[in-house]
Amino acid sequence: MDKPVYTITSHRDERVFIHAMPGHYISASSHMNYYIGTSDVKHNHNVSVDAAMLMAQYYVERSIHVDTVLCLYETQALGAYLAHELSRPTMFNPNPDNNVYVLGPEYDAAGNIIFRDNLKKLINGKNVLVLISCITSGKTVERAMESVAYYGGRVAGVTAIFSAINNIDGVEINTIFSKEDVPGYKAYAPHDCPHCKAGEKVDAIANGYGYSLL
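The structure corresponding to this sequence follows.
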C-alpha cells in the first residue's frame, strides 16, 4: 500500500502530533476513509509528556477529581504521565493529597473488561478516567464505562488522543484531536460504507493497536 501520510499538529502545542493516512479501513464496528496514527503520542516519551499535559488541563481546570486512569489500547505510558500531571500541585489545587493509579484492562473470552480481586480496589468507589487512543463509534469506550460501573466505580471522564465524536452517553470527550483536524474524515457503519458500495478494496484492518494490511 502506497498512501500519503499527513502529519497533523495540535493547535495547542505543535510538539504534539498524529498522522493521517487516506484509504479504506475497517474496524470492528466502523469503516473509515482515514487511518489515524497515534503511535508517537503513545510511545514517544517527549510527545507523550506534552500530550499528557494537554489532557490534564481539562480535569484540573474543572476540578474533576481522578483516582484511577484506565488505559485502553497500549496507553499505559501516556496514562502514567497523565496521572503524574493530575497529581501535581497547580494554582487550582496547590496541595494535592491523592495518588492516581494507572491500570490496564484484562479481557475475558467474550471481550468484556474484567478486574482481578487484587485490582478491584482501584475501581470500586473510585473516580475513573477512561483513556484511549482513538474513538470512532464509541462502542469500545461504552463497554469500558459499563465495566467500571459494574465493578462499583464512577466514570470521571473520557480522554482520547483523537475522537470522531463529542460525547458518549452524555459524557463529554476530552480530546486533543477531532475529526475537524482531519479535513474530509468520515466514519461509516459497515452497511453504509460508500467505498464498499463502489467496490473499492479494503486497504487494512485497523484498531487501537495499529493496522494490518490486506
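The chain has five helices and 14 strands.
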